[in-house]
Specification:
Largest sheet: 8 strands, mixed
Number of strands: 14
Radius of gyration: 19 Å
Mean pLDDT: 93
Low-confidence stretches: none
Order of helices and strands: EEEHEHHEHHEHEEEEEEEEH
Distance between the termini: 25 Å
Strand content: 25-35%
Structural class: alpha/beta
Shape: globular
Length: 263
Amino acid sequence: MNEDNLVEPVKVLYVGDSEVVLNRYLVGADVIEQSYFNDNGRWFREAMSAEPTIHVRHITPHGVPNEFPTTLEELQHYDVVIFSDVGYNSMIFYPGLTPPYIYPLGPYRVNMVRAFVEAGGGFLMVGGYLSFAGLNGIAHWGDTEIEAILPVAISQHDDRVEVTQGFRFELIQADHPIVANLPWDESDWTLCGYNRVKLKDGATLVARYQNDPFIACWGYQAGRTAIFASDFAPHWAGDFVHWSHYASFWKQMVYWLAGRVEG
């Protein structure tokens, strides 16, 4: 009998990883504008779609004001919350900031996530231009409740590290449930960037690149949190997204965060 059928699926709320791109073409006397939706969330969603024990709901940054849970009770319908390429501003702005003004604007979602973890939930931040400090520091997660629950400290400035020549991270705890039993030494993927963060005292360093934490985790009150310093999607994720064990790695990460495995 498949043990996966004996357990309730892990419910994941995944927030971020999309944008609307606007291009402007100046062609002599004519100006042409073109827009399109870039769905970088598809890499993680599709990887998890084949996992019957993991159910993912994806909210884009634009969808946060109307789709993110408004109470802790609603948020606790999920086992794990993931932020990836969604900045602090997207989590605190409401439609009431523009006319017609409605007060109060709404609940403080950031503190709600902290309460979710304190009560036993799992939380993961994945890197990107709007993760941790991010591009020019605009992600702005330093000195927030999210930094408080993470196993790493966040810079107040641009924390991006672009590695155009490509790199591989080094496993420090190869037997940790997040990374165990995967053929890391046999793989040939390459990453191309990450956010530079600093490990907190008491946190577990699972992997690093040079002297920077790359995969780190810890228990925070009744919950668990972790970071993956690179991205779910290219360009930073490089061809990691095509690794045959990409889905298995993220399944193990989600299972650890949900408390389905020890360690």
